[in-house]
Design goal:
alpha/beta; TIM Barrel; eight-stranded parallel β-barrel; 44% helix
Length: 297
Amino acid sequence: MIPRNDVIKITESPRDAQQGLPYVIPAEKRATYINSLLKAGYDVIDFGSFVSPKAIPQMADQDKVLGLVDKTLGNARLMAIVGNMRGGKEAAREEKLDMIGFPYSMSETFLQRNINSSTLKALDTIDSLAQLCADSGKELRIFMSMAFGNPYGDKWNISEMQKHIEHFMHTGIKTITLSDTIGLATPESITEIFTKMIGTYPEMEFGLHLHTSPTNWNDKITAAWNVGCRSYDGVLNGIGGCPMTGYEMIGNLNTLNLLKFAKKHNIRTRLDEDALGVALMVAGDIYEMDLWHKAID
């Protein structure tokens, strides 16, 4: 029996919005934005990543950003993405950080492109991060990139995905986000994969991270919700994407569309819409939308 719950959990991801921008937002402005998101009442804020600024300059100075964040403004848990143990150790030292995310993939090609790692090395890193998180009181969330298909010709099927998930389960990981990195998911594939994963591993929480156009999000969210997915990632304005795929960046699921879906179906969220309106104004101040659109044209 698939568990039912009338509350939708929302992770806001300024990290995914900002990592592919053609400009760098100053740490002070990034912190101001995170503070506005904290007031809005999100469940989780995926605020940034501890990676080399040479690789992703938009994510530099995360320690400075966190120093300016006021966690008393809300109850959201703060999460940062890391791609190796060096980043993991940096993240684990941050008292304000609650969660560490790791961008895994069944696609070894994408692992090499994204975090310069083989599959075996990535699995070893996950095992080490799980112990690091246990020792530092953090939660480890796995992002399963390319979860709905593989454009590089690497082996992909649901049975193969289950082998990887069972490794994570035995490592003690409780939260896995299935990521549609380049927009391959369909309502049918979402239904099939989430039905299998939720039904087979009821003790784990599976979330959905969609890269999708403004016109085809609703059927995908509906499909995921109807088979029991209750955790979703979003980005205000729907901007962002992964710059490491070798494919055109596709925007993120717009958080406002998630709210539209929730209202239509009488689903509760924890968001304060007045505070969210203020966060939208802050977003308008820090995101140079003309430059963003030029970057994806």
